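ok trying again, last paste got cut off:
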Amino acid sequence: MGIHMGFATTQALLAAAVLLTGLALPQPIRADAPPPTDRPFLRVVVIDHSPPFSDRDAAGALVGFNIDFGRELCRSLGAVCSFDAVPFKQIIEDVAAGRFDIGFGNVLRTPDREQRLLFSVPYWRSSTSLVGRRGMPELSLDEAIRSRRIATIRGSRQHAALLRLAEADPTLHANLVPVPTLDDLWDAMRNGQSDMAIGPTLNVVHFLLSDTGEGFETIGTPMSEDGLGGTVHIVFPPGQHALKAAVDRVLTVLRNDGTYQRINRNYFPFDIY
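nice, full thing came through this time. structure:
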């Protein structure tokens, strides 16, 4: 990569590799290639459709920020990895059950999830944004739900926040437009089914930078209170403390040597950490 690595960096990577070598990992379910006997094998899972974090190209191959960084993480760990994609909710279930070793599911840390998963050090920071037609006045979330139809992904933390606001006035439920996927979120605005949409800020930014986002803009400032944002973590099955410790060390190394920032720049116009 043309990046000079000092003694401390080399020592950190060696420590991570030694730590991983002792892991008793379960056998793969779908490997990209048969794992060599002298290297640990890790099963990595990402969200099936969450651009720019993870998506599939025209040939069906997984692409995106989480894929690129996951591969770099595996390389630094000295591991052979397979990559698979499932819906967000399934990531939490599958990793908690040990069907995958590492989950890049854009997962926020909550007390409930801490009972079921192990969390890495922070990987990036999440927030929530409203988006609407260019020129729309700035609105708070409470003002927006009282005056606009808002598309939201069904079952998301944004959907939950809108439902909480609507509890005080049941008539406001008519302004909620739940949709199943991220693409449906943008389509609801474009076809007039909703006046606005609400979603994770980095997904919103990706939409606004795309051709389909022409004529739209964020409304108001990003929100992180009431469960709408926070630090995002890589997740592991319970009990995989050695793997978590190794990944934490390598995450720090990749931040310090500029690798994280290089991959970041391929997908975002600012540092998401």
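cool. Confidence is low (pLDDT under 50) at residues 1-32. Residues 241-256 form the longest helix (16 residues).
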